[in-house]
Design goal:
CATH topology of the largest domain in chain A: Rossmann fold
Largest interface: A-B, 29 and 36 residues
CATH class of the largest domain in chain A: Alpha Beta
CATH topology of chain B: TIM Barrel
Helix content of chain B: 25-40%
CATH architecture of chain B: Alpha-Beta Barrel
Shape of chain B: globular
Number of domains of chain A: 2
Shape of chain A: globular
Order of helices and strands of chain A: EHEHHEHEHEEEHEEEH
Oligomer: heterodimer
Strand order of the largest sheet of chain A: 3-2-4-5
Number of strands of chain A: 10
Number of helices of chain B: 11
Number of domains of chain B: 1
Strand content of chain A: 15-25%
Strand order of the largest sheet of chain B: 1-2-3-4-5-6-7-8
Helix content of chain A: 25-40%
């Protein structure tokens, strides 16, 4: 899932600026699961902004609403009235959600309430870790199911570098060395010979480096009659 | 140099390649370019290394700190008549920049190249930078050797005109984790085209000997020239720091104790209880011992089968190279004329 974390209240205040009517929009999907932008967080954020504005002697009208999936336009239709009434929409969706609102409501000023961090998963209660970098050309079949693009600090395809020590990355002792994990896993599966192949330079065009990406599935598109 | 310099069976015919091919125990040194545009710094350091080493490594924004480029500094070394080993990392350049820099470096007379992944930028003075890592060191070796041997760019396009011919090398970290994989990763680098290897600093000779035993079992020592990395210690604190805080460096307690004993006459005194002269004398005593330890390391490493030379890393202490090379009995350096038939 997409993992995000909330911006500071100070930054939110700056983003909201002088707007009087603020609508905080939460999202019921990834950011609910990672406790950063669900209904609960939207309500708390709205209350915090209300209190902050009151303390500063300029009480704003701050309301909140949460949609099931902020990243799909059809889920944004039911909140059309609230969006139109607001001077600013503070989205607690990921970066996709923020843009979905902006694109769906061209007349509305939309600002982000979260910093979208990565695609990952919870590894223990309260801890989330990155797992996928969306490189567009999955190599997990070569690395025992552990991604060096997302999890090696240098995204090495022929690791580990000399900075692997006692299982962690030299960049930060909190980061497990992805190549140590790959080595250990292939070793335990009796597949270490896989590591003797040299992986050639990667085709990064499949990743963001090739420009913004798009997938078109003709089999799923609705056929539009040509005039 | 002429386009025919790679005749006589040489890949490139650089001095480093000739010395190694002739079977001499090679000595390379390291020169850290300045954090400025002052070419005089390179010339002064070059003067300290001249005639004591077969080639001089020029670091590439070492520890991710911005310095004069290795190729820029290398051009000065070529002017000065010394032979550079250009270090090139994958941290700051994509495959376009790397290849174009290599074309330029060759045109400027550089003939040796050390292919590195590069220290992560968060260690340096621009931790907010975007890194590149379009390729890694092993892929870089493949690109460099394909440019040399097949006259092709990484994309597969044929090169028209003079190809860049580099005697390509790589680094090895014998003691980094996972230790069992290190000899195999070295073998991968050799398979990718590394003609020589310069290792991380060695202070623990028995541990290095065990690594070399595994390397020999793979036959890799016959396919590449392995130069063991050594470096003089400046103080017991430096030894302890490397032992504790630098991944992949083993410093035995005996080495730290030797450094401490060298400073024994001043032991037990706090910094403010020592006069300026005392501090200077203690520093000199430590440095003398550091050089002596380095000499002994070289002599011990030379006895290990498959060690073809040493790479002396005395960054910001280039003055140490002369006493180390002389003390280890490696001076004068051999002269291997380019015209002499290479040993088969």
């Amino acid at each position: 899932m997409i993992i995000a974390e909330q911006k500071s209240l100070d930054e939110l205040k700056t983003l909201v600026g002088s707007a009087q009517k603020v609508l905080v929009v939460g999202c019921g999907t990834c950011v609910t699961v990672c406790f950063s932008g669900g209904a609960r967080e939207a309500a708390i954020t709205a209350a915090s902004l209300r209190m902050a504005s009151k303390l500063e002697g300029n009480s704003k009208q701050v309301s909140d609403v949460t949609v099931q999936r902020q990243c799909e336009w059809e889920y944004l239709d039911p909140i059309a009235e609230q969006v139109r009434e607001a001077d600013v929409v503070l989205s607690l969706g990921c970066g996709v959600g923020v843009q979905a609102i902006a694109e769906h409501y061209p007349q509305t000023w939309v600002v982000p309430g979260l910093n979208t961090k990565f695609m990952g998963m919870p590894t223990e209660q309260g801890v989330w870790a990155e797992r996928c970098a969306a490189c567009g050309d999955c190599i997990l079949g070569l690395t025992g199911g552990i991604c060096p693009i997302a999890r090696c600090s240098k995204s090495l395809l022929n690791g580990p570098c000399g900075g692997s020590e006692a299982g962690h990355c030299e960049v930060n002792p909190e980061i497990p060395c992805a190549w140590q994990l790959i080595y250990d896993r292939l070793n335990s599966l009796g597949k270490l010979q896989v590591l003797m192949d040299i992986q050639p330079p990667k085709n990064w065009r499949a990743s963001r480096d090739g420009g913004p990406r798009k997938i078109v599935r003709e089999d799923l598109r609705l056929v539009v009659e040509k005039e | 140099m002429t386009p025919d310099e790679h005749s006589n069976g040489y890949l490139v015919g650089s001095n480093l390649e000739r010395v190694l091919r002739a079977g001499h125990f090679a000595v390379t040194g390291e020169l850290g370019p300045p954090q400025s545009a002052d070419g005089e710094v390179i010339r002064k350091k070059a003067a300290l290394l001249r005639s004591y080493v077969d080639a001089v490594n020029l670091t590439d924004n070492q520890t991710a700190i911005v310095r004069m480029s290795s190729i820029g500094a290398g051009a000065i070394l070529v002017q000065e008549g010394l032979e550079p080993v250009i270090q090139m990392t994958c941290r700051d350049r994509n495959r376009l920049a790397i290849q174009s820099d290599l074309l330029g470096a060759y045109a400027l007379g550089m003939r040796n190249l050390l292919c590195l992944s590069g220290d992560h930028q968060t260690f340096g003075n621009h931790p907010n930078a975007k890194n590149v890592f379009d390729m890694d060191s092993i892929q870089l070796l493949q690109v460099v050797t394909a440019m040399r041997d097949q006259k092709v760019f990484q994309c597969g396009d044929a090169m028209k005109g003079q190809e860049p011919r580099f005697f390509a090398g790589a680094a090895a970290a014998p003691f980094a984790d996972p230790v069992d994989f290190r000899p195999y990763r070295l073998a991968k680098k050799v398979k990718a085209g590394a003609s020589f290897i310069q290792t991380q600093l060695v202070y623990d000779v028995p541990a290095f000997a065990r690594f070399m035993e595994k390397v020999r079992a793979l036959g890799v020592h016959r396919q590449t020239y392995i130069l063991a990395g050594v470096g003089p210690l400046k103080s017991p604190a430096m030894a302890s720091y490397m032992k504790k805080d630098v991944p992949g460096i083993l410093v035995p307690d005996e080495v730290i104790e030797r450094m401490e004993r060298a400073g024994a006459p001043w032991a037990g005194k706090k910094a403010d209880e020592l006069s300026k002269e005392d501090k200077k004398a203690r520093s000199e005593a430590w440095k003398k011992e550091g050089i002596q330890i380095c000499i002994e390391l070289i002599q011990a490493l030379r006895q290990i089968e498959g060690v073809a030379g040493v790479h002396i890393m005395a960054i910001e202490w280039e003055e140490a190279i002369k006493p180390i090379v002389e003390g280890a009995g490696l001076y004068p350096r051999p002269v291997v004329p380019a015209a002499v038939e290479a040993a088969a």
